[in-house]
Amino acid sequence: MKRNKMLLATVLVLMVALLAACGGNNGGANSGGNNGGTNNEAGADTGGNAEGSDAPEEATIRLGYVGGGMTPVAVQIGMNTGAYEEANINIEATTFSSGADMVQALVGGSLDVVLGSYEHVLRQQKNGLGVKAFGEIYNGVGYALVVKSDSPYQTLADVKGETLAVTKVGSLSHTGLSEGLNEAGLDPDKDVTIINAGSGATMFAAIDGDQVAGGMVSEPTLSQMVETGDFRVLYDPEFPFAGIVVMADSDWVADHEEGMSRFLAVTDEAASAAKADPASAVDAMLKEFDQITPEVMEAAVTNNLRKVPEGLVLSEEGADKVHQSQLDEGVLTEPIPFDQAVDLSLLP
């Protein structure tokens, strides 16, 4: 067990170093021309089909998402299996170290589509911009509370009086933990102490070193830790939450409707195929996380695919959960109607 934990710690350090390297360019962004694509101005569709061919026109989408995690698993699988390329979609992917930087790139016009929390859609709607959600690829907060296997806690109510770790106060990990504590009858501000512990190696060290009773961990680190036998999941948020939506400016979508519709259809097909056979997606995801064993990756893929909604449909219940959190935090001063911020008309 000790050897496994040392190996896990080493792998997590390597993952953090790789993530830092990815986030160190262009203001926290790392650009990559997935599927062998070339840059096309303004993400426009280009006529790449030969006369008389049944192939659809080539569509180029400049895509942004936060790197280092697996909540965009449906799109990651699509990119790494060549599914988009087969559908004549050229994905130019850029990873970011923060959602705020990613959305700024979207509204600034250097990205066409981004994958992020629904809260970003609401904030841009508040600012009078036409950013909308056109589908959802992850229904949840993407984190679970991990404790040591020999800890005495059996339910979330048992952590009263303890110190718990989130990646950052105010983040999705914090939101998920706070909701769970409330459901367990605990006051997140009074009954526990919540601290920042980052992710990957720093979160692992906080839990393993008994600095905290437990910490909020995401995939694939979650499956890595559980696989050692030294850790277990105490609480996995199951409530609907619009965690990762497909967002874009509605004017751009109006000009590239067919390409956007095709992108959503291929994403849904990739997710459905992987749900039916999670092992088939392991090689694709190992291209994103090459320090993970195939066995751990299959567990991580299976866990995350559970949260990909059927047909990529964003539920009003999940959207309302995020909407209410933004009202409670004072980010929104008045409600924003669901149909003002969401357009599901292009889903397959």
UniProtKB/TrEMBL annotation:
UniProt main location, coarse: periplasm
Pfam families with a match to the protein in the record: NMT1
UniProt entry tagged with the keyword Signal: yes
Region (Disordered): 29-55
GO cellular component: periplasmic space
Subcellular location: Periplasm
Signal peptide region: 1-20
Domain Solute-binding protein family 3/N-terminal residue range list: 60-292
Keyword annotations from UniProtKB, A to Z: Signal
Gene3D superfamilies: Periplasmic binding protein-like II (3.40.190.10)
Annotated InterPro entries: Solute-binding_3/MltF_N, SsuA/THI5
Listed SMART domains: PBPb
Family of the protein in this entry: Belongs to the bacterial solute-binding protein SsuA/TauA family.
Protein's UniProt name: ABC transporter substrate-binding protein
